[in-house]
Design brief:
The complex is a heterodimer of chains A (271) and B (407). Chain A is α/β, with parallel strands linked by helices and 271 residues long. Chain A is built from 9 helices and 10 strands. The two termini of chain A are 16 Å apart. Classes of the chains: A alpha/beta (271), B alpha+beta (407). The structure holds adenosine-5'-triphosphate and magnesium ion (MG).
Chain lengths: 271, 407
């Protein structure tokens, strides 16, 4: 509660893309597994951050909770300024359909569909008509550098290309945040680099992206690294670029974030 | 993609939504990529519906054919016989009945036959007690015309032939006596005398008794066997629409003393009644069809459960893309419905083809009852809905993280 830097104050006045406040996730069992043990985290709009940590440290669990695919046992989750902790299935689905884009290690493309239709699926549950979905999908595929592969099916694409299609699907609806779980986990180093380059490019174009990886080297190329161990945040490099993120937004808008952010900073400073 | 900060105001959260057209394409995508499995799992429904449509179609076609036959034979035929009750006398009607009946206004035609006590045998060496259930009757020359009957071979009796030992055989009688043609001058042995067969009749659907009769002329019956010519059966045609009126006065006309001892029937009604009784064959096939439908439904449920397990990742992905539980449920329910409706449509087509094939082979007109088509498709829809319910609920209940776990 002591060291409030100018950067912190700027943060508090903006609406973060994502905010976790003292999130605990326990899987039932004997004994129960505490996969997340009091995680607080704030991701500003326009950030590109890596979550690193050893296997079993709780990275995927954290990403699932952030993406509303799983409910925390306790704690609060805010996405794009909304407290979604109390949301039911329908509203959580709406959050996923409009505010979140997922990228998975296994791509999860639907085999019987062209790249274009796979990407268009990113808008399926937003209720857009097919034609509009396809136009947006084509634009997204062009953004990820696959303009020449629109009609190809997943089995006609390389691993790197498949992941590009998956990334296009994750950004086609212009989400508040893209959550990627080991996006390069199934790729060779050249393809991995290309994917990271693509993520950098999307970040520069304004996307907010959170990437899970256990590759420290890969993580070090990103502006921010959040290190997780045993369900807790171990270190978090200060978000350096977020000073301008909230410019123009009235102060006190996101007051609930205050305590959590301070705690987070304190914890980071304690290391 | 927008640059710059977002806020609550910048983005209104709309509920997830799946357009109806998308429900269909999403619900059929799994089937389109697994065509062979789709075909095989729809087969049970196809067979069940085909069996039902086929059986109903065939029985309807046969009914239509019978109806057409009845129509052709005429529904305006009445038949008068002495009722077999006690005091019914000698089983004949008064001799002047025919003349009286012909004087009833709307009666267009009337004829009678007289049942003889003589027996008919193939020749003079067979045992005379073996009459083979055949009867000998003396017939009016008008009989054939009144019944709309026809000869299949040879000729009907005329004035000349009615006075000499000639005989016309009913279709069954000819068969029993092994007479198949008349050109070689076949002879039969009636009441100890030889008669020449001059004709064989086509079957009388309206008077099957006559199929088992040998018909001789009244004059020869009187002269050779000294028979009394009291009518055993009188048949008559009325003008269309007057049948009930004629029917009500027939009894008193024929036997004014005891009209109750006269039995009047309308042969076309008997035919219709016979048609209404469903054959055991039909019921058996309907039962088999129902069993096949049941098995088909279980098969679809089974395939759907497998599909839900196999496509866990897809379910997880769709949830990640914003599908609600209801959307997932709807997707798999739609898939199951499409599957069974495909089976149902194929079954209707197959059943119609079977009906067409069988009916054409029988020389009937082809009738596929619309009710069978509608019923077939409706049962396919119901089966699909029931079979898909449990798998769809299972898919919807699957937790997204569980579904996304690598398989
Ligand atoms: N469904 C579950 N039920 C019980 N325990 C679980 C479940 N999912 C994860 N866990 C446990 O929670 C902990 C965190 O798992 P998580 O998958 O988040 O790790 P991770 O950091 O993503 O690991 P990796 O780098 O191997 O992917 C692990 O100890 C794991 O065994
Ligand atoms: Mg993981």
């Amino acid at each position: 509660m002591t060291k409030a830097s100018p950067a912190t104050i700027a943060q508090l006045t903006s609406t973060p893309a994502l905010e976790l406040i003292d999130i605990v996730k326990e899987y039932p069992g004997t004994p129960p597994v505490r996969a997340l043990d009091g995680v607080s985290l704030r991701v500003e709009d326009g950030e590109l951050a890596a979550i690193v940590g050893p296997s079993g440290s709780g990275k995927s669990t954290m990403l699932h909770v952030m993406g509303t695919l799983d409910r925390p046992t306790t704690g609060q989750l805010r996405i794009d300024g909304r407290n979604v902790s109390e949301f039911g299935d329908r509203r959580l689905s709406a959050v996923r359909s409009q505010l979140i884009g997922f990228v998975f290690q296994q791509f999860f493309l639907i085999d019987g569909m062209s790249a274009l239709d796979n990407v268009a699926n990113g808008l399926l549950y937003a209720g857009l008509p097919t034609a509009k979905r396809r136009v947006a999908a084509a634009e997204a595929l062009i953004k990820v550098g696959l303009a020449h592969r629109l009609g190809h099916f997943p089995n006609q694409l390389s691993g790197g290309e498949r992941q590009r299609v998956a990334i296009a699907r994750a950004i086609v609806h212009d989400p508040a945040i893209v959550l990627a779980d080991e996006p390069t986990g199934n790729l060779d180093s050249a393809a991995s680099e290309a994917i990271m380059e693509l993520l950098h490019g999307l970040h520069q174009a304004g996307s907010t992206i959170l990437v899970i990886t256990h590759d420290r080297e890969l993580a070090s190329s990103l502006p921010r690294q959040i290190s997780v161990r045993d369900g807790r945040i171990e270190t978090d490099t200060s978000p350096s670029h977020s000073n301008d993120a909230g410019s123009g937004w009235p102060a006190g808008k996101s007051a609930p974030g205050h305590t959590a952010s301070s705690q987070l900073l304190n914890r980071a400073n304690d290391e | 993609m927008s640059d710059g900060p977002r806020s609550n105001e910048s983005r209104k959260l709309k509920p997830s939504k799946l357009r109806p057209a998308d429900v269909v394409s999403v619900g059929s995508s799994g089937l389109r990529t697994r065509k062979m499995r789709t075909a095989l799992s729809a087969l049970g429904i196809t067979i069940g519906i085909a069996a039902m449509v086929g059986v109903l179609g065939i029985s309807e076609s046969s009914r239509a054919d019978l109806q057409a036959q009845i129509e052709a034979l005429g529904t305006n035929l009445l038949s008068v016989q002495p009722s077999g009750g006690f005091g019914g006398g000698d089983g004949t009607l008064p001799e002047e009945s025919v003349a009286k009946v012909s004087r009833i206004g709307p009666v267009e035609r009337v004829a009678d036959v007289v049942e003889m006590e003589q027996t008919i045998l193939r020749n003079d060496v067979v045992n005379p007690n073996e009459t083979g259930g055949l009867s000998v009757m003396a017939a009016d020359l008008d009989l054939l015309a009144t019944l709309n009957g026809d000869v299949s071979t040879g000729v009907w009796l005329d004035e000349a032939k009615a006075s000499v030992p000639t005989v016309v055989l009913g279709s069954v009688a000819a068969e029993r006596l092994a007479v198949t043609e008349v050109d070689q001058g076949p002879m039969v042995y009636i009441g100890g005398e030889w008669f020449a067969v001059v004709g064989i009749l086509a079957p009388f659907p309206l008077a099957p008794d006559l199929d088992r009769a040998a018909l001789i002329g009244k004059p020869i019956a009187a002269s050779m066997f000294e028979a009394e010519l009291n009518p055993s059966i009188i048949v008559l045609r009325t003008r269309a629409g007057s049948i009930d009126q004629v029917r009500s006065v027939l009894g008193p006309t024929v036997d004014p003393q005891s009209p109750d001892e006269v039995s009047i029937s309308r042969p076309s009604e008997l035919l219709e009644a016979q048609d209404a009784t469903e054959s055991a064959f039909t019921n058996l096939f309907l039962g088999l069809g129902a069993v096949s439908l049941l098995v088909g439904g279980v098969g679809i449920a089974n395939v759907m459960v497998i599909a839900v397990i196999e496509r866990r990742n897809e379910i997880g992905l769709r949830r990640a893309l914003g599908a609600t539980r209801a959307h997932i449920r709807r997707q798999f329910l739609t898939e199951s419905l499409i599957l069974s409706v495909i089976g149902g449509l194929a079954g209707v087509v197959l059943g119609a083809l079977v009906t067409a094939g069988y009916s054409t082979a029988q020389g009937w007109q082809v009738v596929v009852p619309p009710l069978a088509i509608i019923g077939g498709l409706a049962s396919a829809v119901i089966i699909g809905a029931i079979a898909g319910l449990y798998p769809a609920m299972r898919a919807a209940r699957l937790a997204p993280t569980e579904a996304l776990r690598a398989t």
